[in-house]
Structures are given as C-alpha cells and as structure tokens.
Amino acid sequence: MTDIRQSPQYASYLKSQGWIVERIKNTNYFIKKLPIIGSILKLQRPEKVDLNQIEKLARRYRAFQIIIEPKLMANGQWLITNDYKLSNSPYLPTKTLQIDLTQSKEQIYANLTKNCKYSIKRGSEIFTKEYSSPKEIEIFQNAWKKSVNFSRYVPSVESLLNLKKSFPQTKSIFLTSHNIIGSIIGGVIFTRSSHYIAYYWQAFTNSEGRTSLSQYSLLYQGILWGKSQGCKIFDFEGIYDDRFPNKSWLGFTHFKRSFGGYEVEYPGCYTKLSLLSNLGRT
C-alpha cells in the first residue's frame, strides 16, 4: 500500500511549502533549493528506489545532500552498499502502529485496553466539532499555539490552509474538543490520500484537555472516520523506537498502544553527500 508521502496530494502540499516536486513513474522526489550550496534531494517511502534517477536529479539540481527513507528493510542494506550512511536522526518515524480497519467496529473496540475504553467514554461527553473553513482553521491554529509551550513547533495558518487545500473534503478532517464554555481544549488532524490508509497526522491538547482525557475520544473518532471512508489501515504515524531512542516519545507511545494494533518498522534514514564540483548541471 502506497505511503501518503508518495501521493499526489502530499506532493501538492510540499509544493505549497516551497519544495520542488518531480513526480516520475508515480514516485515523488522532493527538492529544496538553498542559497549558494545547491539543494537537498529527499525521497521518502517509495515503492521502488531508483538510484539512476536519483543521480540524474542530483546533477540537475546540484544536490549537496541526498536523503532516502526507504519503505523496505532490504533497501537499507542495499543503500549502504551504494555509499549511503545510516543517519542517527531520521526525519520520518522509523516505527509505527497500525490498526486493521477491515475489522468490524465491535472488534476494533474490543482490542482497546480497559483504560482506553474508560477514557473514551469519559471524553465522549465533551463537545467535538469539525473545523474546515479558513476562519475556523485560523481559530484551530490559534488554539494550538495557546495549548503548547514555545518550544513546540506549530504550523502556520498558511501551512494548515495549504494542507486542507491539498487534502480537500474527505481527504482530511480537523477535529476539536471543547469545554463547557466552548473553549477549544484539544485538536487533531487526520489525513488520507486513498482508500487504503488513514493517518493520525498531528494533534494537541492543553492542560484541561489532558485532564479530561479528551484526546482519547478524538483519536477514536479519527479511527472510525478512517473506517467510514473505506480505508483498510489506520496509521498512528510514529511510536518510540529503541533503535533511534527519543525519550520524549515514550508518553504518547503508551497512549497510542492503548488502542491496540500491530507494530511496523522501517529501516531508517540514509544520507549521502554529493560533491558539487563533480555534479555540475545537465
């Protein structure tokens, strides 16, 4: 099943963020031009890694660095034999959790932990709303900024609007939870690019949202949304991986695992530096 980063929708989104996208034989190649030094060439979760095509694009765009995050474990070893190095800092999550959405709703619910079921029931009493208009997405982003500390990255309003534009209508959904006076206490974005995989894309909660456990209800609604759209898999978009340890991921990994599912591992991120003097232009 094709990863969302190889979809036309994601290509459209990256273009809106200032990347050049070369889509060749259903594969997205992302190029970011940088002053003086050339560019970065990035390839993420492709169905096939074509090194000849990568080298052609590297020469065309004078790429000083090539970044490949393959889908298959076998591709990792193959890249090492072709002078790529495994990075200690991957860009994409190297391990994720997925739920089989072809199961019945009853089976999906049965696979939740006891604590998760309780939290969903408690959080379901909180008012939720879908946000979709430009004004609503601006409100969504403002609530996000207020909910997290300054060190947390929050996409700009423009970036969120471009995301919604690239994944229009039922390709994405922005959900929020509210307290009794109507203030937003949590929000989440789910995306899909086909009828195969729905993604838990980004989320936030403030202290009140965490206390009320609203994030459980929001995530469960996203799982059911993916199933209602005919998707076969729900992807949690990353959990803790002890191969590339990041202790800050342990908390939300415990949260995600309470929904059941099975683990999927990816080989990691492989990089190669190119000598600009040898690349030139074609």
List its traits:
282 residues; alpha+beta; seven-stranded mixed beta sheet; six-stranded mixed beta sheet; disordered C terminus
Describe the structure.
This protein has helices spanning 8-16, 51-60, 73-80, 105-110, 114-123, 134-147, 157-166, 207-212, 214-228, 250-257, 276-279; strands spanning 20-24, 27-34, 38-44, 63-69, 85-86, 95-100, 127-131, 172-178, 184-192, 197-205, 233-235, 262-265, 270-273. With 282 residues, the protein is α+β, with helices and mostly antiparallel strands. A hairpin with a 3-residue loop joins strand 2 (27-34) and strand 3 (38-44). The radius of gyration is 20 Å and the shape is globular. Mean pLDDT is 94; it is low at 276-282.
What does the secondary structure layout of this molecule look like, with pairings?
Elements: H1 8-16, E1 20-24, E2 27-34, E3 38-44, H2 51-60, E4 63-69, H3 73-80, E5 85-86, E6 95-100, H4 105-110, H5 114-123, E7 127-131, H6 134-147, H7 157-166, E8 172-178, E9 184-192, E10 197-205, H8 207-212, H9 214-228, E11 233-235, H10 250-257, E12 262-265, E13 270-273, H11 276-279
Helix pairs in contact: 1-7, 5-9
H/E element string?
Answer: HEEEHEHEEHHEHHEEEHHEHEEH
How do the strands of the widest beta sheet line up side by side? 7-8-9-10-11-6-12
Instruction: State the helicity in percent bands.
Output: 25-40%
Provide mean pLDDT, rounded: 94
Amount of beta strand: 25-35%
Kindly provide the radius of gyration, computed on alpha-carbon positions and rounded to a whole number of angstroms.
20 Å
